[in-house]
Amino acid sequence: MKAHILQHVAFEDPGSIASWLRQRDARVSTTPFFESSARLPQPDDVDLLVVMGGPMSVNDEAALPWLVDEKRFVRAMLQAGKPVVGICLGAQLIANALGARVYPGPRREIGWLDIEGAAVDAPLLSLPPRERVFHWHGETFDLPGGATRLASSAGCRNQAFQWGERAIGLQFHLESTPQTVNAIVEHCRDELVPDIDVQSEPVILAEPVASYARINALMGRVLDYVTR
Questions:
Q1: Which helix (H) or strand (E) is 173 found in, with range?
Q2: With 0-12 CB in 10 A as exposed, 13-18 as middle and 19+ as buried, what is 109?
Q3: Does the active-site annotation cover 175?
């Protein structure tokens, strides 16, 4: 398997996705958009695309012109029917590449909060009826045309969606490890302004290791699904 990762900031790495890829002896390449040497591959050279998160907005094309090329590449992968998984910003990029609007959500979600899986029929991906997962986002998106909602939450209607047979967008972070959560807290703690769905730093970092194992297993199930 030739996997490619689109990474937007150094402190949001693939987390448990890297372990899943190692277990399958995948050949992994990366486009680090935070480096001036970043280059995109040809879609034909990629079997699985993972689009990571980041603190920027998909609407920041004027300040970050590489977003234009990234969206074009994501769109090409989607149109080719390749497996694509987007996480947080990555989910918003998939939605936007498919023509959907991305905009500030009704409230920010930061911390360990519940999502509710939608009742869907096979062969669509089925998520658990209720799952406590890690969030860090302030924007949301409209559901792209032809997509099916897979999960929602009290603060965000579109938490996960499927487009076609092999494209999944997740507004939340199933790939999180204690190391990746510590990194995002360290770099983005200025966003921890008290709000209804914004947890404090001590609460976020006190989450037991078992929670990470649970969401990482679900991340693996998503990856198994799109690469089936």
A1: none
A2: buried
A3: yes
